[in-house]
Amino acid sequence: MTIHPAHLGETRPAFGAVGALLVILVVATTLRLPAAASDLSHLLPLHMALETLSIVAAALIVRLVWSVRHENPPANLLWLASAFLGVALLDFLHVLSLPGMPDFIAASPIATSTGFWLAARFVGALGLLAAVWMPWRVRPARVPQGARQLPVLLLVLGATVLLFRAPPWLPLVHTPGQAPTAFMVGAEYGILVLNLLAAIRLLWLMRLPRRFNVGALFASACIMAQSEFFLTRHTGATDVYSLFGHVYKVLAYFYLYRAVFVAMVRDPYARVDESRRRLQATLQAVPDLVVVMDARGRYLAVHAVPETARPGPDLRGRLVEEILPPQAADTVLAALEEAGRQGVSRGRLLSLRIGEHTRWFELSVARKPAWAGESDHYVVISRDVTQRHESEQMLRKFSLVVAQSPVSIMILDRAYRIEYVNEACTRLSGYTSQELLGRSPVDLWSPRVPTATVLAMTAQVARGEPWQGELVSLDKAGREFTESVLVYPLRSADGAITNYLTLRENITEKKQAAARPQALSHYDPLTGLPDRALLHEHFQYARRQFRTLAVLWVGLDRVKSANDSPDHRFGDAWLRGMAQRLRSALRAQDVLSRLSGEDFLAILPDTGQQEAARSAQALLDSVTLPLRLEGRKVVATASVGIAMYPSDADGLDALLKHAETAMRRARAEGRNGSCFFTPEMQAHAVHLVALIHALRQAQQRGELRLVYQPQLRLSEHRVFGAEALLRWDSPQWGTVCPAEFIPLAESSGLIVPIGDWVLRTVLRQIRVWRDRGLSGLVVAVNLSAVQFDQPNLTNRIGRLLDEAGVPPHCLELDLAEATLMKTPDIAARKIQDLHQRGIRLAIDDFGAGHSSFGHLKRFKIHKLKIDRSFVRDIDADVDDQAITSAIVQMARSLGLATLAKNVETAGQLAFLKASGCDDIQGRHFSQPLESEDFERFVLRLGGNPT
């Protein structure tokens, strides 16, 4: 059986006592006692003393419960006390009627004394069983105490009369030899069973939360049962078993008294003490200042001090005038006076200046009745209501804002009846607020409003969706006006719709102003140029009037940088300036339109190819002139694509598409130029689309592969690493040149998954080579600008290294100069992260860009790779020789290694070696090789690089 944890503290000693006494019982009943133990008549005074103790214990139990009867103790204890009142009386009669005692009423036989004994044991066992079997109620039913004791007293009286006046009516309890009869032994066993039932019930109650001392009651019931067991074995009133039975009975009464004492005295006082501690803890946890004062405002006690008040620990004994400013002190004294008259005072506010802020406090005062001879005390709670006060102030401001808002505001209930209108609403409608409250806003609409509109609005807002539209309303004088109406459902905290908010604005004048020519709406609001719709109208007109015309797509190459400036207004001003310049470079009959943020379109009527080319150059010249805005000089370029009507297409949409294609070709060829559309461009565009589509599937189809070009260390003449080069073998186009498909991959975003595949494949190959003994190889991988801009680049590469089990120093990442120079600060941080992971870094094609040496010092790189353009003619061109030597010397001064790419001839090799270049790669040394061929090449050239 599982005992509830609340009972463990009391049941352990109870089980221990019951177990120890049970051991004594077993020993005493199993040992053969000497003959002298069967008759201990010389110990009769001890028997009398034990009986007296039991009577005193029973009386104490009765007295203890009787003394707290007005505290509404549980009914169980009241019934138990009534039963033990009978036990005490019956035991007393038992003692008085013992043989050898003075005659009590008349000379009493041993049967009379034994009868009182059995009656007392029966009443005690039955009373205990009833007490533990009844529900344990804290506040019992209202049964008078006499009503509980009367049955017991009647039982005692009946037993007395019966035992003294009618002994023959009772069964024999002793044989002529004074041995107990079967009836008496059976009676003792019956009482034993009653006590055991009480003990079993108490064992069951140990599973439940603690409400009384179950352990002591259990020990009492068990010990009473053991006492009865001894008495079933006795052969006379003075033998050893009878003596043991009396001793156990006294012990049982002791545990019973203890249980009653705990339930009636100790536990209530413990609960009072616990309640006091909880009250004190609650007061300490209260965020309010709680103090006790007398009527004069003297601090008597301080129970809780919030952080905002902090009056200090020396308030006791001081008057409120000594602590608070005069106005605040008067407020406190007024609250005390009101509480003295009415018992409580609430809602008075006082303000205190604490630090640099003013805080507001609300007082609650309650009179605490005093004991006789003392004056009344007052409990004062000071609550910081600064936030609430400020919120109320803010709500009052919001109320004024709503009331005085120039927008007409209505609040409707769920039945669409008006509950509130502000002043603007009354001015708009001409009705007073009293005339509008309770009405439906539909009553204010013109009869010309369709019923379908009303139904649609009602259905939409009933679904919890806002409705917005225009309605024609009538004012009080019957005049019509147009208003823009927004009906918005208001929801409670649980999401239920409680009201509807209606915002109304008179837009009659706006509607009249909107009646201006519709053409005004077809112009770009930023530049004032025609939009695409108006452009179509101009094109149709020009095509009807002229046999030829040119369409020029002007793409500004630097507009994005301008728009990305910290001040967006600067970008808008720059676009307006560019639009004015483009417009001034065209003829009066030409049409200029802005298509998007960076693209403009010009239609040039009656224009051939030569005139179109001259106009395109004029547009380019106007763009490249410096533009000064807000003290800054901005220089830009443009790219122009030209399509001709009708030779290229006869529809504007097709001409726009062709002009855009030509513009992109001009931009790809170096920007700041123009290009005419040709059919080959269209075919090339189609080819690029098909190529991108095939490239999307190339990786899954296994069409991509890697080759490795060896890299030679000149000082040691050994292969120390390789550069991984990507190849695409397409079933449709054959081997596609990397210079063709890699830019497509970058522009389409495919370079990211392809780059991940390259890194994963290279790292697996390094792992294979290391397992085969080539542990010193370093493989370089080109990293595109798109890959470098990925936010989680370092973590992704680190994860791939961990998956392959390759040390970071075996991987070298090649970065283009332009990638680093685009955002040097961000690039420096990313390079620092990669460097800390142990990954080697190199700048590829160094010298072809516009690196700053100051920026170069910030980058944690290991190597500079000299651009191939300087190596190609290095054996004959003195300029290339000078540049290459300068790069080598600068790298050496910075502690960086150098590598020359595309070394094709012995003359190139000789100069590079003489200039101090560290490493080379190129076809003069070896062409790119498959992985197996590269491994054999390394082993054949110099064995295992380590």
From TrEMBL:
UniProt cross-references to PROSITE patterns, sorted A to Z: EAL, GGDEF, PAC, PAS
Bilayer-spanning residue ranges: 12-31, 43-65, 77-96, 116-138, 150-170, 182-205, 251-269
Record-linked Pfam families: EAL, GGDEF, MASE3, PAS_4
Keyword annotations from UniProtKB, A to Z: Membrane, Transmembrane, Transmembrane helix
Domain named GGDEF: residues: 547-679
Gene3D superfamilies on file: 3.30.70.270, EAL domain (3.20.20.450), PAS domain (3.30.450.20)
Domain (PAS): residue spans on this chain: 394-442
Sequence ranges assigned to domain PAC in this UniProt record: 465-519
Residue ranges of every copy of the EAL domain listed in the record: 688-942
InterPro entries: Biofilm_reg_signaling, EAL_dom, EAL_sf, GGDEF_dom, MASE3, Nucleotide_cyclase, PAS, PAS-assoc_C
PANTHER family: BIOFILM ARCHITECTURE MAINTENANCE PROTEIN MBAA, DIGUANYLATE CYCLASE DGCP
This protein's name: EAL domain-containing protein
